[in-house]
Design goal:
The structure is a single chain. By secondary structure, the protein is mainly α. The chain has one domain. The protein contains eleven helices and no strands.
Length: 217
């Protein structure tokens, strides 16, 4: 799953970030460079952490977990600044609704990530719960990458493919454990339910007023 997620991010952001000079994309601001580097580093760290556990190197895994905890705090803060800045400039991904409405999508991703990763870190002594919540938290970051893959730029498409990752988690538990773990079941439900909820909220006058305030601040 770590490899699949990292590959998804590389494919999605290749034209605008990883291979932007090859694709002739516009230059990025320092803020976007830091944003891209930080979120990419999280995906790489997630893969490294999974490999360390598989290799029984749990002491190094725990030490790197401190780095991951710091990153998990910085990522939502930086992600929110980038999302609000893009909405202020009227920038949206292809297929997304207008900027103030679309702002609910990335901010919702960050809420999902923060909730799951915070719970996962708090329950780090419960290994089976911890690793499942950290995986779901990282899956929750995938919509922006998936949405940049050609033909997948509409919310229905990139949310639907994100949900396939969640479904794979549930299928894994069902096949290997003969049941669904509560971490995957309730955490996965949280990821999936957040998607239509944020789209519904995004079209209310209350959200539009709040998003307008955020972009004016």
């Amino acid at each position: 799953m770590a490899l699949a997620m990292l590959l998804t991010v590389v494919i999605g952001f290749a034209p605008s970030y990883f291979l932007r000079t090859h694709f002739g994309a516009a230059a990025l601001s320092p803020l976007l460079h830091v944003h891209g580097a930080l979120f990419t580093a999280w995906m790489v760290l997630f893969l490294v952490q999974a490999l360390l556990v598989a290799g029984q190197r749990t002491s190094l895994h725990r030490r790197l977990g401190v780095v991951g905890g710091v990153m998990a705090v910085a990522m939502p803060l930086l992600g929110a600044v980038v999302a609000i800045s893009a909405a202020r400039r009227g920038v949206t991904a292809p297929g997304d609704p207008p900027p103030l409405v679309a702002l609910a999508i990335p901010l919702g991703d960050l809420v999902v990530f923060s909730t799951l990763v915070g719970t996962g870190l708090a329950l780090r002594r419960h290994r089976e719960v911890h690793k499942r919540l950290m995986l779901l938290a990282t899956i929750g970051l995938l919509p922006p990458a998936i949405g940049r893959i050609p033909l997948l730029g509409a919310p229905l498409a990139y949310f639907g493919l994100t949900d396939l990752f969640v479904g794979a988690c549930l299928a894994y538990d069902r096949v290997t454990e003969g049941r669904f773990s509560r971490a995957f079941l309730w955490g996965g439900l949280f990821v999936v339910a957040s998607q239509p909820l944020r789209l519904a909220i995004a079209n209310t006058p209350y959200w539009l007023a709040f998003a307008g305030w955020l972009t004016r601040a």
